[in-house]
Specification:
45% strand; single chain
C-alpha cells in the first residue's frame, strides 16, 4: 500500500466524516493505494462489480490518533439516464474493521462550461431536476461578485429538493469541490424561475498556518 502525505480538502473531509462541507476543516492526511483484495471488496459494494477498468478509487488515511482509511469511489457508467451517462458514486471506510460503503448515490456525467462534472443527486430528486439546477448554476455570470460559472466542477451533488422557502418554491443545495450554493426554483401560473440565495466558497489554504477560511454570500 503506497502513501503520500497531503492535506485533505474540506470537501473530501465532509464526504468521509458525513458532515456538511461548511463544517469540515483541513485535515492532515496521506493518500494510499489499496491492495487487490481491498480494492475488490470496495468495488463489489460500491459498484456491484470488481472487473470494470474505468472504476475510479481515491483513498486516504488521516494522520494522528486514528489510522482508518476512507475511500471515494466513482463507478463506471452502467447506462443512460436523462440522456446522460449514468453511474454511482460511493464513500466507504474501514472504521469498523471491515469495508462499509454506506453512502452510495446515483450520479450523471455532464459537460458544463468549467468541464466534465460527476453530478450526484439524492433519490427523491429527479435526474432531470439535478441537470436543470447544475446547468442553471453554470450559466449565471455572477452572484454577489462571485464567478459562479467556474464553480460547478469535479464532483458535485444536488440535495434538499423538498424544503419550501415560500409558496410555490423549492430549495436545492448544490455542493461541488470547494463550493456550495443554495438555489431556489419558484413556479407560478405555469412559469418557473431559478435564482441563487446563497453561495459558500472555500478559500485558498494559508501557507503560514495550514488553515482554511470560508465566506458566505447571501
Amino acid at each position: 500500500m503506497r502513501a503520500s502525505k497531503h492535506y485533505l480538502t474540506a470537501t473530501a473531509a465532509s464526504f468521509a466524516l458525513g458532515v456538511p462541507t461548511a463544517f469540515a476543516t483541513l485535515i492532515p492526511s496521506e493518500s494510499v493505494t489499496l491492495g487487490t483484495a481491498d480494492r475488490a471488496a470496495v468495488l463489489a459494494q460500491a459498484c456491484g462489480s470488481t472487473k470494470r477498468g474505468s472504476d475510479k478509487i481515491e483513498a486516504w488515511r488521516y494522520l494522528g490518533a486514528t489510522r482508518q482509511i476512507y475511500v471515494h469511489v466513482t463507478c463506471a457508467p452502467y447506462g443512460a439516464v436523462a440522456g446522460l451517462p449514468a453511474l454511482k458514486i460511493a464513500d466507504c471506510n474501514n472504521t469498523k474493521g471491515r469495508w462499509d460503503c454506506d453512502h452510495i448515490s446515483p450520479a450523471l456525467r455532464i459537460d458544463l462550461p468549467a468541464g466534465e462534472v460527476v453530478l450526484a443527486y439524492t433519490e427523491h430528486i429527479a435526474p432531470e431536476s439535478a441537470v436543470e439546477i447544475a446547468t442553471y448554476a453554470s450559466t449565471v455570470r455572477s452572484f454577489n461578485g462571485r464567478d459562479v460559472p467556474a464553480f460547478p466542477m469535479g464532483t458535485c451533488s444536488i440535495s434538499d429538493g423538498q424544503s419550501a422557502p415560500f409558496k410555490g418554491a423549492i430549495n436545492f443545495e448544490l455542493a461541488c469541490d470547494g463550493y456550495s450554493a443554495s438555489i431556489t426554483k419558484d413556479c407560478w401560473e405555469g412559469r418557473c424561475r431559478l435564482f441563487f440565495t446563497a453561495f459558500d466558497e472555500l478559500m485558498v489554504e494559508s501557507s503560514s498556518n495550514k488553515s482554511l477560511e470560508r465566506t458566505r454570500e447571501g
